Each structure stands twice: as structure tokens, then as C-alpha cells.
Model the fold of this input.
Amino acid sequence: MAKQRAQSRGLLWAVIGGAVLAAAIVVGVLVAVTSQGGTAQPASSSPPTPTAGPTSSTSTGEVVDAAAVEAGWVPEPITTDPESYLRAAIEAAGTVDTTRATRDEWVTYLDTWFTPDPRFQDPDEQAAQTARYQLTMRDAVIFPDQVWDSLARQNGRVIASTMGEISFTPVPDYDGDDMFIGTSDVVLTFTQTGEDGAESSYEEQVRVSAQVLCGEASVPAPGSAQAAGDCKLIRYFDAALSD
Done:
């Protein structure tokens, strides 16, 4: 995979079926990530010292909602391990089963992974920024409506699997050691069912970045076993960061 920063913003899931899916509708998808930007008033203006990644972690194997699997989704882990959480969050943005849930249900589920960005001090500003991050996810990261509809017409399912090591990038304008940006190569496995009932599959590889908080400022999912300090999702990026 090229290690250079993606130059374009916006929809980068561009998955086109090959010979295996020649009879299928062309599918498009995107995931990627750009550098931190915006007009935020950060808690600190001094960038942290670059680090190779987290040095300590705890993972219990528990999840927020085990029933997510029944809908064809990745369950959100309950963990303080940034790498484990990043892998799950990145895979959750590309794992769906159109025969079990709608796109709106999937998006609503992904919203529950988010927590406010602690670099924003004012609660209203935090809420507004989280809403912007969620809008970016809807518009530039997960499968758009037209792709979902194409998949649904053929009972499409997609499994996203992170591959290799997570590369870590320092979080801009943050002095803490509990927020992480991670990037991973991802293999998307598309499976569709034809009119004759026969299944066909196709794989594509993309590169995805996400930002997570694993500190006391994280807000647990209501009614779950999550606690403050467990990892939560800050954002997905609309173009992949590189190491």
C-alpha cells in the first residue's frame, strides 16, 4: 500500500466488482482520513511528542451490546486498549448485512460509539463537534445510500477485517496520553446472492483512520457496562492518514 497521505477528501470507498461479480451491480464504498482541522478552540496549543503507540492496556473481552452481531454489525468492545478498540471501530465502519438491518439502523448504532472530543471545553461546542464528526461519517466514510441499495438488491453482506499493524499518529493540539489516531489497512469482503441463489464474493483493500479516547473524559454508553476511562470513538477521518 502507498504510504503517502491521500490527496483527495470525501468519498474514498471506491470498490468496483471484478470478474467474479461481473453480473452484479457496480459497488462503491469509501473510507479514508485527512489531518485534523477546523476552527476548534483546543484545550492545549502544544502538540504532543510523537509516540509509537500505546504502552499499556486492559481488555476484558466484554462488549457493549452482544446483540449487535445478530444485526450483522461489529459489537463495540469494552476495553482500555486503544489498539483493540481502533480495530473494532475501523471494522465497524465497513461491516454490514443488508438482510438483517437497514442503513439507518446501522448509522444509529454507530452513533453510540462516539464520545465528545476533550479538546473542546464548552459542552455546547463539544456536542456540535460530535455532530459534525457523525455527519462526516455519514457523508464520507460509510456506505452511501446508493451503494447500500445496490447491495440490498442482492442480499449483500460485507465484512471488514483490519490487516497488519496499526500505525499511530500524534493527536494535534493535545497534551494528554489517552487519545490516539490509528490507521490500518482493511480488507473488505463483499458477498452477494444471485437470483439463482448462488453466492459470489469479492475482496477489496482500503486504508482507514480513526481517532479514539481511552481516558476519564470518555462518556460510557448509557445502560452499558462501560465506565469512564474505557475507550470510545472520537471520529473517523474522510481520507486516510499515513505513517
Q: What stands out?
A: Confidence is low (pLDDT under 50) at residues 1-53. The chain has one domain: 19-35+58-236. The two ends are 12 Å apart (CA to CA). The helical segments are 82-92, 103-111, 123-140, 145-153.
